[in-house]
Amino acid sequence: MENVTIKDIARALNLSTSTVSRALRGSYEINPETKRLVMEYAEKLNYRPNPIALSLKGSSSRAIGVIVPQIANYFFSQAINGIEAIAYNRGYHVIIFQTHESYEREVANVQQAMARKVDGLLISLSSETSDVNHLQDLLQRNLPLVQFDRVSEELNTTKVVADNYAGAFAATEHLIKSGRRRIAHLTIPRWMSITQERLAGYRAALEQYGIPFDENLVRYGTFGPDEALGMVDELLAQSPRPDAIFTASDRLALGALAALRQRHISIPDEMSIIGFTNLNVADLLSPSLSTVVQPAQEIGQAAAERLIELIERKHRAMPPNTVVIPSHLEVRESTRVASSTAS
């Protein structure tokens, strides 16, 4: 099958080749309806730009660097799917790096991305990253940079995030409406943006329903294996002990679920549990796990779109802003109303 060209698309839609070219690049000069027609027709014909040919036209490498904490993490694997879908359609290669939650590896990844001469960088910060000077240096060198999911307010960049506050509020409110009153929160390092936003949503829901915030019910972890066991044991030692757990990640929720089973705590009769992310196995667990759905693929797509706009528009790009993608609550068996609290 012969490769489809811009000329083929232009001829079929009765447009100039320059109009089609600008529409495929997402140029602000082309009206949205024309862009839609061009993109739909290009997708129908399976048109793909030739990155090598495009790179020969200028100094662009037609490559985007993506730095994430861990590719095996379900959220990041889905975000990468979204990033690659957009990049591929726009004629960009994606080079993926992972930090394994290490600040030092993050710095090394940035240096490696620069050595590869990427046109721009998408990054989600490691759990150890509180110093962002290595990224400030990139901004001073005018490298297009977009943060997603885990972000730093110190960096004046576009940020693409889930609505962590609303998701945490909805999860906590659901537990309260299910009759729970001592709701524990298992979370991740204090300085991370997602930690602060989810904690704020949890606290706001408690306040709205007249339940005092209890610091003793909050446990901060890292991303170590099996750490939820110790956190759950500390909570169970309290008197009265919690009747529900809201975790800031499904990884922590899985750990808490296993720990409660080991301690013969019935879920949800004795303890409700709700997570955050929506692992692809959440509905297959026993009991199936209630969770806040974090729209990973949409976040990846939006982040890639904003980065390519920065790369291609240069000085005409929109000023930095924060794009918030809605999250929503998926209620399953792990927060079913307990027989003791049912009215």
Automatic annotation (TrEMBL):
What UniProt keywords are attached to this protein's entry?
DNA-binding, Transcription, Transcription regulation
Instruction: Supply the Pfam families for this chain.
Output: LacI (PF00356), Peripla_BP_3 (PF13377)
This protein is called what?
A: LacI family transcriptional regulator
Recorded hits in SUPFAM superfamilies, A to Z, give: lambda repressor-like DNA-binding domains, Periplasmic binding protein-like I
Q: Spell out the molecular function terms from Gene Ontology.
A: DNA-binding transcription factor activity; transcription cis-regulatory region binding
In what residue span(s) does the HTH lacI-type domain sit? Answer: 4-58
Q: Which InterPro entries match?
A: HTH_LacI, LacI/GalR-like_sensor, Lambda_DNA-bd_dom_sf, Peripla_BP_I
| Domain of life, per lineage | Bacteria
